[in-house]
Design a protein that fits this description.
The complex is a heterodimer. Chain A is an alpha/beta fold. Chain A is built from 12 helices and 11 strands. The chains are: A alpha/beta, B mainly alpha. At the A-B interface, helix 4, helix 5 and helix 8 of A face helix 14 and helix 15 of B.
Chain lengths: 287, 426
Amino acid sequence: MTVATVGKTAIDPKVSSKQNLEVDQVQATVGSPLCENPKMSMRDVNVFYGDKQAIHNVSIDIAKHEVIAMIGPSGCGKSTFLRALNRMNDTVDGCRVEGEVQLDGENIYQQHLDVVELRARVGMVFQKPNPFPKSIFENIAYGPKIHGLADSRVDLDEIVESSLRRAGLWDEVKERLHQPGTGLSGGQQQRLCIARAIAVSPEVILMDEPCSALDPIATARIEELIEELSQNFTIAIVTHSMQQAARVSNRTAYFHLGKLIEVNPTEQVFTMPEHQLTEAYITGRFG
Amino acid sequence: MSKSMDNLHKIKNSLKRRSRAEARFRWYGRVAILIGLAAVLLLFADIIGKGHGAFKATYIKLEVHYDRDLLGVTSLADTAQLMEANWDAVPKAALRERFADVSGRRNKRQLYKLLSNGAGFDLKDHLLANPLLLDQTETLWILADDDIDTYYKSWLDGEPYAARLSNKQVQWIDQLHQQGQIRLQLNTNLLTRGDSREPEQAGIRGAVMGSLLTLLLTLMLSFPIGVAAAIYLEEFATKNRFTDFIEVNINNLAAVPSIIFGLLGLAVFINFFHVPRSVPIVGGLVLTLMTLPTVIITSRAAIKSVPPSIREAALGMGASKYQMVLHHVLPLALPGMLTGAIIGMAQALGETAPLLMIGMVAFIVDIPQGFTDPATVLPVQIFLWADSPERAFIEKTSAAIMVLLSFLLIMNISAVWLRKRLERRW
């Protein structure tokens, strides 16, 4: 109860300026946002929705085969930033991205880049499980089919099986591959979506609060899965659960009102945060 | 404590008032539905009551002798002779034989009016189908005149209407009836023949074919155009002033009186492009213009109802926009689009006004065989018959309405069935 009261006063501008929690004063990201040989590197990224700026000057690197968690209070722009990484924001009317987003040193916002290729390399798993209203098999086979990854039917069968195995779903669905994917439970649907994403062998997987619609048991399974996948894939996960970030990620990035406040190894963020805003958030003073 | 007791009391008091209001509200709904149902029942009862008679026609039993000399025919293979032959002479002779006591020109002319004046041609068709009957005698049921038909049906119903008949004719019918030589038979003409000035020979086959051809063209044009426009506007067009302007105009067009589309068709298709008048092509084009807004609006609604998560899933997999639409949005939106198209078609089937402007109101006897044959359509046929002075057309009109309504019913049922059948849940 008392914490909540403190949290409220912290948002009050007068009090917060005293406590140096004013976000306007944040000049640069603290901690270690950059790394050597990054898989993806973002420099001075600004995202606008019409006139409203949602992301302010974010610079961060994502290392190869790491799991980076993005946390922060609601509306802090973490999802917007994630969607800028595979240009899913292109589908939103009035959304504009400035700055540089590089995948293996290549700017993904350059004019002649085909988003189809980009999204085959940077896959995405969404907040709400969204399998296609088709069979389980068709769900997995769709990506390889449109990208022409399978040379034969046998090939395709193999891709489907290995994707489902890697997503830990094979044993549960192998008997009913040709039944609709929408008939699975929520957790199974989300693993199906992960299997669908890895079926095209992307290099990076973006996950936008993948467990927020799931119960704790299904969540635990997905978290296990993320750990396994991190051996082969680079994963950026947005989550509003700090425990989840603590459990699955190597590094954690804290966003606040569209700014990247702090990036540090996960252990450090949750034990000795450098920035007061981060500390305020992880101790539950607001969020 | 007393305060909460007080509140409880207030709530209890208000409960009665609230449940009364709810009961009243339910009754309003029931009454509204009853009024609607009563109106529909009244309409159906009236139409069926008037129209059921048209499915039967009066026939008179006569001994027919296909006399070579009477016809003036020596061989049935000679078409020139067949053209010249006096076909009417055969039924007239049959009548004279049946009523041998009738004498005098005036009486005989009244006698001849018992039969439809198309009876001779019916016998010609019958004879040509059975050439061995030449010079033979045969007992046949021959179609009666529409005035006789009207009188006989009304007499059977107990309210004889004899205004158009002479006393002698009434006596003859009485005589025929007593000897079982006049009866009601299934009226095959109604469904197999085109329009005619003579009510007993008039049928709706021409109008049904005209409607079918016109609708086929309308469907073939408006569905692909409408769906393409809807997909482009929903999925590809950038939202700006121009697309807003288009959207407003499409919605406006859906409410434009249909006769204006007829005028447009007259000015554009007939006067400018010189498409022939009165043919299903021009009718189909005009009805396409008319149904396009409906098809576009319902298709857009169907596309909008596809959850955005499916689009995101497809795009996130690296599908191009075209693949996303073709593989995911279109299959999910198709039931809604088809329903919209069928509703549009039903609307087009019942449309009269624009077709009046483009000459599809003409009196056409021949049954149209193609898109370029002059034709009329069912609602226009109803309009034409309702306008005809002959009393026998009253029941024909209602019968045509029954046929039109059953087509509409079939279309709407198939729309519901299609939606149920194709609908996917997610």
